[in-house]
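User: Sequence for peptidylprolyl isomerase below. Tokens please.
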Amino acid sequence: FPSSYDRGSTFNVFVGKGQLIAGMDKALVGMCVNERRFVKIPPKLAYGSEGVSGVIPPNAVLHFDVLLVDLWSLEDEVQVQTYFKPEKCPRTVQVSDFVRYHYNGTFLDGTLFDSSHNRMRTYDTYVGIGWLIPGMDQGLLGMCVGEKRIITIPPFLAYGEEGDGKDIPGQASLVFDVVLLDLHNPKDGITIENQRVPESCERRSQTGDFIRYHYNGTLLDGTLFDSSYSRNRTYDTYVGKGYVIAGMDEGLLGVCTGEKRRVIIPPHLGYGEEGRGKIPGSAVLVFDIHVVDFHNPSDSVSITVKYKPSNCTVLSKKGDYLKYHYNASLLDGTLLDSTHSLGKTYNIVLGSGQVVVGMDMGLQDMCVGERRTVVIPPHLGYGEDGVEGEVPGSAVLVFDIELLELVSGLPEGYMFVWNGEVSPNLFEEIDQNHDGEVLLEEFSEYIQAQVDSGKGKLAPGFDFEKIVKNMFTNQDRDGNGKVTAEEFKLKDQEAKEEHDEL
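Assistant: Structure tokens for peptidylprolyl isomerase:
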């Protein structure tokens, strides 16, 4: 007689309610899902002496091969069995949260009907507002990120009598093996955790600052999606001006140089429903950041005097020749360079462009023996490009300086000055062969003699030959390599010009 296998659907019935012949009502009691029983039912517990016309003869003994596929009761509720729970669980799923989870969906007999793993993408949905079957809406509540649980749902809290019209038949209990990967609420703002602030924090970042920081970026389940460390360079950006995602713009405000913090960013302040690259849609982002330095484009050089001698009357000025020692480092303490390791001083003419602008500013008004720390923002240092292999781009520099020697320079615009009265017959004295023309060699010998005798002084720190050639060229008005008496003039005899003369 008929078989449920032939119909292609299970036989669905309440047990003990008179919906079955008496023998089957008794035979099904005590069965487990996936249990198979061979049931022999005598006529008195089946269809008796009358049978069923055309199907079962009178007084027939019936034999059934029964496989129990599913069972449930109207009193059943959603069953939740957690088989893994992380040690740390700062937050659990609540009504109206948005979650991302993976699942395997099976029937009670273990038959797989669906799996998010096979699609290689999470199932993303709101919880508790009717986007899911009622049993799953209940079963996800209270979960932690990383938690794994089995959620068993009776059909009246799933797809009921009709099923889903595709893979799930009517009256089917469903079993979901779920792992929660992500959790947030649309009302969430960013969360800042694990702050480690240096003891010395003179300044905190504000809107408009430019910041350099390292980071590891992960999803809530710990999956790494990006790291500045792997690129071996910091991420450099303005803060609070929309150059980064909104959550990071906010998370980078109020930080100190050297600070470490974790910034947790919900997707509506991150990459939203679409995601980006390795970041899936609707993903909560976790950034562990380390602030290397920051500055503001309006910053000037910062000078902190560490030691100043009691006798400090002669102060450095533009044009002075300085000899000093320095240690150069980044704001995080990374040493870049040191004259001490070279065993010799660094020597410059102040204000002549031989060092970065910030150092020219930082060495002003300093006396011999003074020690100071000079902090130079990148726009007064090595700028966005830095120095390849030595100074990172956009880096704030810290110089610890000690001035060891100062030779006073000449007034601005002069490369040579007289220490006494100037001879009224200056041209004749230079023109030693009295031919009315002065050559570069004659000019050079004369200037050298004045310097050696102490009658004249050259600007310190510059190459003698270059200075003399420059002075000679300025006197050689027609450029023929000779200076005549008509061409020769002292500087104070002319209107001020941009070249160096006697």
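Confidence is low (pLDDT under 50) at residues 495-501.
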